[in-house]
């Protein structure tokens, strides 16, 4: 028995003007909607995440307590559960899958929230990495609906350096001859392994490796970690799915779309939600400086950076107890 719900959207016109055929969002809910429908928390998924991985942020002893809140964990397009290159209609399968933006993701998530659940207000949108990017998108796209956001290790617009880093992992994957411009018969295993290995150098900080913190995660040495990251991507991911989400990430900019027409400052200023920005100072690609810039324009915002040698992976559930404590404290503040 599948442990999630499907919301069928039908054919959806994308920001690009193209049509995503027979679109669907896969989601899971935790807790119950109260009578006033005032206890809604949206938790989108991150780059290599699903609703299952998001469960690490939820718990009866955590700030995201399902006994108090109605938490909707929504899978991003391209992650293999919601519409993706692997499960699309035949004419849009694999390399033929259309390019999607975060605007498209949130437009469809809004349909789910309003049409399926008849929700008018969202107490909080929060998430790690690309899920955090979606929280900004929610607040800019539907400013009167979102009461609070807490993006952690995320940004409202991709930086040039972040874009370049992603080009690097993409190049490692697509260099595999089997990839064949996305028209592969079997997964390009060597490319997927290379993708995982390159990514391992960015996911943690220099201090993480210097201090040999990989031992805390159960690895004897850095070689073991590299092998695990390589194998994990080869076993669990489809190449076109990874690249579809990577393109969405590279297009991250809350001012895309009809509302702000690429006026980024105007989009930031439009965010009415109470906002806590939570970067990690040792994150190698979502930089604290970017959040500092955003804070200048988001009126009800505060910046709460965290120090951790885990870098971007500070937020991976179980990695850093101090981060977890700070995150829960900030979430409670926004929800109170």
Helix content: 25-40%
Please state roughly what percent of the residues sit in beta strands, choosing from under 5%, 5-15%, 15-25%, 25-35%, 35-45% or over 45%. Answer: 5-15%
Quantity of strands, as a count: 8
Give the end-to-end Cα distance, rounded to a whole number of Å: 37 Å
CA-atom Rg in angstroms: 19 Å
Please mark out the parts with pLDDT under 50 across 5 or more consecutive residues, or reply none: none
| Main structural class | alpha/beta
Mean pLDDT: 97
C-alpha geometry: globular
Number of helices: 11
Q: Helices and strands, in N-to-C order?
A: EEEHEHEHEHHHHHHEHEH
- Give the biggest sheet: 8 strands, mixed
Strand order of the largest sheet: 1-2-4-3-5-6-7-8
Structure description:
The chain has 336 residues and is an alpha/beta fold. The protein is 37% helix and 14% strand. It has helices spanning 51-54, 102-116, 130-141, 160-174, 189-203, 206-210, 222-236, 239-250, 264-270, 288-295, 321-335, and strands at residues 5-13, 19-30, 40-44, 70-74, 124-128, 148-152, 274-277, 301-303. Strands 1-2-4-3-5-6-7-8 form an eight-stranded mixed beta sheet, sandwiched between helices. α2 packs across α3 and α5 packs across α7. The longest helix is centred in the first third of the chain and has 15 residues, at 102-116. The protein is globular and about 55 Å long.
């Amino acid at each position: 028995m599948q442990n999630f719900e499907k919301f069928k959207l039908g054919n959806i016109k994308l920001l690009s003007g193209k049509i995503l055929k027979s679109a669907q969002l896969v989601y899971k809910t935790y807790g119950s909607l109260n009578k006033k429908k005032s206890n809604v928390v949206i938790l989108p998924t991150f780059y290599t995440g699903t609703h299952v991985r998001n469960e690490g942020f939820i718990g009866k002893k955590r700030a995201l307590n399902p006994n108090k809140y109605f938490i909707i964990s929504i899978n991003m397009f391209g992650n293999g559960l919601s519409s993706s290159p692997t499960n699309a209609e035949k004419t849009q399968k694999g390399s033929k899958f259309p390019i999607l933006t975060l605007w498209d993701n949130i437009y469809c998530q809004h349909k789910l929230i309003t049409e399926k659940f008849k929700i008018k207000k969202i107490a909080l949108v929060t998430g790690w990495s690309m899920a955090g990017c979606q929280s900004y998108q929610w607040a800019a796209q539907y400013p009167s609906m979102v009461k609070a956001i807490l993006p952690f290790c995320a940004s409202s617009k991709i930086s040039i350096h972040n874009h370049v880093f992603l080009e690097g992992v993409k190049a490692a994957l697509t260099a595999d001859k089997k990839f064949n411009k996305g028209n592969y018969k079997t997964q390009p295993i060597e490319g997927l392994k290379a993708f995982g290995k390159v990514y391992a150098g960015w996911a943690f900080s220099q201090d993480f490796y210097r201090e040999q913190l990989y031992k805390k995660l159960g690895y004897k040495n850095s070689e073991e970690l590299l092998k695990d990251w390589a194998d994990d991507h080869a076993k669990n991911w489809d190449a076109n799915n990874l690249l579809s989400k990577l393109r969405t990430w590279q297009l991250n900019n809350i001012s895309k779309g009809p509302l702000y027409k690429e006026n980024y400052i105007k989009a930031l200023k439009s965010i009415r939600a109470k906002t806590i920005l939570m970067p990690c100072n040792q994150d190698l690609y979502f930089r604290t400086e970017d959040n500092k810039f955003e804070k200048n324009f988001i009126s009800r915002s505060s910046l709460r950076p965290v120090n951790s040698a885990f870098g971007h992976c500070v937020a991976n559930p179980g990695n850093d107890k101090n981060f977890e404590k700070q995150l829960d404290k900030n979430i409670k503040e926004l929800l109170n």
